């Protein structure tokens, strides 16, 4: 009798203890999407990012001329998510904006301008609709994020620059959004440089840039006219969907 | 053999019972320490740094390792009815301030030091939410002190709004005028602002961009400097986060 009771107790204990090892429910579909933050704000060493007043890990802070995090931050979908960006100089608030985040969309937050005129826009990073096979093409988009009055042109190797890469003044949030689409280019390895309207080279990307099939690349000019040595061609390989 | 099992079952149940119910036992809750908020602001441009020493009934103790000019620091210190604050200059350890004031529980205070070595000026504000305001969640609060070494009467303008009367034509403070202006002026003009300070002729003395003023924020804005190259006019900001917390409740 007592032996049986002990067995029961042991059984109950085993069920209780091992119960937590059971996997409940079906596997959830994987959430796809995220935001990449690109800092081209030259007037501060770095920028702090907050979403709904929470820091974003990997961006504390994000230095000038860099982007992150390595894997885009998955911001939970919703309307009116609050994005704040602060400069490391005197805690200037550069951006205080509401985001609308949808699932299965990759976004990029692009910060530029000056303390007097901080500028920011969010792009939706999508495969061009015309692309039959997204993994078979390479595509590029170009932004002028430099504090300059000059109109700049992006040269990818010897390819004749398309209209969207020519004579671009410094972006406004509107023009940035308008040019968020990626434009297919012939795959290959190129030298990349940016010229002004007089044809003078403002900045050349060091080395070569590979644009293999399936790559979606943002190219931008950053820097400030007050010191022409600061002009720099930035390249960010983007996640797209 | 059989008899050996008999006492084990009640023992087992007893052990489980003890473990499960142990969590229900009320222990003596640890009492939180009694604290006051003390912010210290250094607008004293004639020294490299100043040192705050505080006596809350345990003798004079250093608050920091020295605070540079334009510095703003925040401390939670034990409450004490006759707290003694001593401020020492890095120039030959000269004593600039020796004052006594009350630190009440859960109240916030800010110490401002300005003036010159010959005539150091100091005051301590009681930082509290504006009285008689119903909806604390939708407003922010501002106050302004002119701590500059100049004879100008200065006006603080927030964004492009008409300057508020208490922020207009302020001469350099005395402890008395500063204490009279210690209340936060409520404002519904929240957002990210550019602050400009002009003299009586409308000449801009200092400017600061990107100042975040959200509902529930309480800020002290102060002008410091003397306009020389070594100490240009500068707009300093103290964020009274403790008050913000109360406002959120």
What is the compact description of this entry?
The complex is a heterodimer of chains A (241) and B (249). Chain A is mainly beta and 241 residues long. Helices cover 10% and strands 45% of the residues of chain A.
Word description of this protein:
The complex is a heterodimer of chains A (241) and B (249). Chain A is mainly β. In chain A, 10% of the residues lie in helices and 45% in strands. Chain A contains 2 helices and 18 strands. In chain A, strands 2, 3, 4, 6 and 7 form a 5-stranded antiparallel β-sheet that branches. A 4-stranded mixed β-sheet of chain A has the order 5-1-8-9. A 4-stranded mixed β-sheet of chain A has the order 12-10-17-18, with no helix packed on it. In chain A, a hairpin with a 2-residue loop joins strand 2 (46-51) and strand 3. The longest helix of chain A has 18 residues, at 2-19. Chain A is elongated and about 100 Å long. The N and C termini of chain A lie far apart (66 Å). By secondary structure, chain B is mainly beta. Chain B has 2 domains: 1-127, Domain of unknown function DUF5300 (Immunoglobulin-like, Sandwich); 128-249, Immunoglobulin-like (Sandwich), CATH 2.60.40. Chain B has helices spanning 2-5, 8-22, 175-180, 241-248; strands at residues 35-42, 49-55, 60-62, 67-68, 72-78, 80-89, 95-103, 108-115, 120-127, 140-146, 155-158, 185-187, 191-198, 204-213, 218-224, 234-239. Chain B is elongated and about 100 Å long. Classes of the chains: A mainly beta (241), B mainly beta (249). The interface between A and B is medium-sized, with 17 and 12 residues.
């Amino acid at each position: 009798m007592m032996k049986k009771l002990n067995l029961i107790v042991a059984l109950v204990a085993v069920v209780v203890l091992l119960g937590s090892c059971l996997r409940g429910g079906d596997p959830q579909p994987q959430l796809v999407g995220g935001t990449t933050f690109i800092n081209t704000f030259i007037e501060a060493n770095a920028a702090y990012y907050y979403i709904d007043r929470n820091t974003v890990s990997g961006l504390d802070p994000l230095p000038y001329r860099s982007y992150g995090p390595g894997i885009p931050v998955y911001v939970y979908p919703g309307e009116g998510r609050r994005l704040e960006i602060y400069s490391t100089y005197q805690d200037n608030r550069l951006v205080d904006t509401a985001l609308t985040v949808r699932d299965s969309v990759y976004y990029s937050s692009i910060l530029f301008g000056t303390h007097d005129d901080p500028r920011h826009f969010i792009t939706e990073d999508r495969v061009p609709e015309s692309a039959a096979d997204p993994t078979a093409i390479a595509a590029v988009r170009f932004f002028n994020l430099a504090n300059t009055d000059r109109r700049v042109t992006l040269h990818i190797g010897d390819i004749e620059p398309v209209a969207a890469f020519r004579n671009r003044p410094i972006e406004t949030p509107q023009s940035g959004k308008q040019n968020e689409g990626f434009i297919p280019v012939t795959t290959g390895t190129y030298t990349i440089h940016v010229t002004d309207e007089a044809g003078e080279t403002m900045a050349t990307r060091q080395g070569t840039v590979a644009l293999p099939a399936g790559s979606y690349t943002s190219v931008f000019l950053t820097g400030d006219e007050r010191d022409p040595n600061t002009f720099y061609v930035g390249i960010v390989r983007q996640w797209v969907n | 053999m059989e008899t050996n099992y008999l006492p084990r079952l009640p023992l087992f149940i007893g052990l489980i019972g003890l473990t499960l119910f142990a969590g229900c036992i009320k222990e003596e809750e640890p009492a939180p320490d009694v604290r006051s908020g003390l912010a210290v602001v250094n607008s004293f441009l004639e020294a490299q740094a100043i040192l705050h020493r505080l006596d809350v009934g345990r003798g004079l103790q250093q608050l920091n390792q020295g605070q540079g000019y334009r510095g703003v620091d925040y401390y939670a210190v034990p409450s004490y009815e006759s707290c003694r604050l001593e401020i020492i200059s890095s120039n030959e350890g000269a004593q600039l301030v020796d004052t006594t004031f009350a630190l009440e529980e859960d109240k916030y205070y800010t110490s401002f030091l300005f003036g010159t070595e010959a005539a150091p000026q100091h005051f301590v504000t009681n930082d509290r939410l504006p009285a008689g305001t119903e909806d604390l969640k939708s407003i922010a609060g501002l106050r302004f002190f002119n701590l500059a070494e100049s004879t100008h009467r200065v006006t603080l303008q927030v964004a492009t709004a008409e300057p508020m009367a208490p922020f207009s034509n302020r001469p350099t403070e005395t402890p008395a005028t500063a204490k009279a202006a210690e209340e936060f002026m409520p404002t519904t003009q929240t957002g990210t602002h550019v602050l400009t300070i002009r003299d009586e002729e409308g000449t801009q003395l200092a400017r600061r961009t990107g100042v975040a003023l959200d509902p529930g924020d309480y800020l002290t804005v102060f002008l410091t400097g003397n306009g020389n190259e070594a100490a240009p006019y500068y707009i300093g900001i103290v964020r009274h986060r403790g008050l913000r917390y109360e406002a959120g409740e």
